[in-house]
Amino acid sequence: MTNPNPCLGCGICCTQFRISFYWAEGDDAPGGCVPAGMTEKVNDFYRCMKGSNQVPRRCCALTGTVGEAVACSIYENRPSPCREFPVYLDNGEPNPRCNTLRATIGLPPLDWEPMPSA
């Protein structure tokens, strides 16, 4: 692999946010896919991933050691906030929020090589 996924050596975002999403994303609702047993109720409309609703935070689906080697145990069934948090922005630039979080655990910022203009 020439460009490995930087998330597999980081995982800090999974320890910094309450991962909240609409309750119907749970697999106990028609069409939902997030394992309901790994979630907790926030209110009548939202649930969150267990482990992300208290400090210190760590999503229960995160496996491995943050900053070294991690994985999401439900990657294919992860909730929308996880799917929508970009490591890289649409222009290919690293997400500044990602680099800020990486710095808190001593990881270097992600590389970025601007695309040549035509």
Describe this structure in words.
This protein is α+β, with helices and mostly antiparallel strands. Helices cover 12% and strands 15% of the residues. The chain has helices at 80-84, 96-104, and strands at 20-22, 39-41, 46-49, 62-65, 69-72. The strands form 2 sheets. A 3-stranded antiparallel sheet has the order 1-3-2, with no helix packed on it. A two-stranded antiparallel sheet has the order 4-5. Strand 2 and strand 3 (46-49) form a beta hairpin. The longest helix is centred in the C-terminal third of the chain and has 9 residues, at 96-104. The two termini are 28 Å apart. The relative contact order is 0.20.
What is the topological layout?
Blueprint: E1 20-22, E2 39-41, E3 46-49, E4 62-65, E5 69-72, H1 80-84, H2 96-104
Antiparallel strand pairs: 1-3, 2-3, 4-5
Instruction: Kindly provide the radius of gyration, computed on alpha-carbon positions and rounded to a whole number of angstroms.
Output: 16 Å
Helix content: 10-25%
Instruction: Please give the count of helices.
Output: 2
Along the chain, the helix and strand elements come as EEEEEHH
Uncertain parts: none
Determine the structural class based on helices, strands and strand pairing. Answer: alpha+beta
Tell me the distance between the termini.
Answer: 28 Å
Major beta sheet summary = 3 strands, antiparallel
Extended strand count: 5
Strand order of the largest sheet: 1-3-2
Beta content:
15-25%
Oligomer: single chain
Which whole number gives the mean pLDDT? Answer: 93
